Amino acid sequence: MEIVPTITLRMRVPEEQIGMVIGSQGVGLKRLREETGVGSLTVERNSRGGQRLVEVTGTQEQVQLAQDRVRRLGALRG
After folding, report:
1. How is the chain split among helix, strand and coil, in percent rounded to 5?
2. SS3 55
3. Residue 3, class by beta-carbon neighbours within 10 Å (0-12 exposed, 13-18 middle, 19+ buried)?
4. How far is CA 63 from the centre of its chain?
5. Could you give the strand order of the β-sheet that contains 40-43, starting from the edge strand earlier in sequence?
6. Closest CA to 11 of 61, 69, 49, 56
7. Could you tell me the mean pLDDT of each successive run of 10 residues in the chain, 78 residues long?
8. Residue 20 C-alpha from the chain's centroid
9. How far apart, in whole angstroms, are the C-alpha atoms of residue 31 and residue 73?
10. pLDDT of residue 77
């Protein structure tokens, strides 16, 4: 059995755009987890400086895919 290393990525998402990531009743988060296969995807409850922390844990490929999806939603810059 092969052990696959995991990584954690923390992204800051503007408060006004976090709804695109979370979705109605968390449907967006659930879809993002299912489509990317990440092991963990959490969103900070409270805003800091107008941004919320999104933390993603999984393989490098899963985390990169999740980051790309969040970026495509327009929630990340760069």
Report:
1. 45, 25, 30
2. strand
3. exposed
4. 8
5. 7-14, 51-58, 40-43
6. 56
7. 91 91 93 94 90 95 95 72
8. 11
9. 13
10. 60
Residue 17 amino acid letter: Q
- How high is the pLDDT of residue 10? 96
Query: Distance (Å, rounded) from C-alpha 70 to C-alpha 1?
Result: 32
User: How far is residue 65's CA from residue 7's CA, in Å, rounded to a whole number?
Assistant: 13
C-alpha 25, offset from chain centre = 16
Residue type, 10: R
Q: Contact 33/41 with Cβ under 8 angstroms?
A: yes
Query: Token pair of 43, please?
Result: 């969103």
Are residues 77 and 67 in contact, defined by beta-carbon separation less than 8 angstroms? no
Whether residue 66 contacts residue 36, with contact meaning beta carbons closer than 8 Å, is answered with yes
